[in-house]
Design goal:
The chain contains 3 helices and 3 strands; from the N terminus they run E-H-H-E-E-H. With 79 residues, the chain is an alpha+beta fold. It has a domain of 36 residues. The chain is elongated, with a radius of gyration of 23 Å.
Length: 79
């Protein structure tokens, strides 16, 4: 995508959408290229099954909500 200084000011949402699509954004000033904005992180399309934490508690017989409550702890300390 090519964006002028005016585009950066008034159409920043379009610039951000281009970055989300992993497009480089070329910045123009008076029609001359002044720089390029490069997306920070490229999205990877990994499967959830490939995550090291997937299925880490599969042998437990408790519900997910119960396990999460144990990991997070209560909201208030019991007195």
């Amino acid at each position: 995508m090519r964006a002028s200084i005016v585009d950066l000011r008034y159409k920043m949402k379009d610039v951000l959408h281009a970055l989300e699509r992993n497009e480089n954004v070329q910045i123009l000033f008076h029609g001359k290229l002044k720089g390029t904005i490069i997306p920070l992180i490229k999205k990877s399309h990994k499967k959830i099954e490939d995550d090291p934490f997937f299925g880490m508690c599969r042998k437990e017989k408790r519900r997910v909500e119960e396990k999460m409550e144990e990991l997070r702890g209560g909201r208030y300390n019991a007195i």
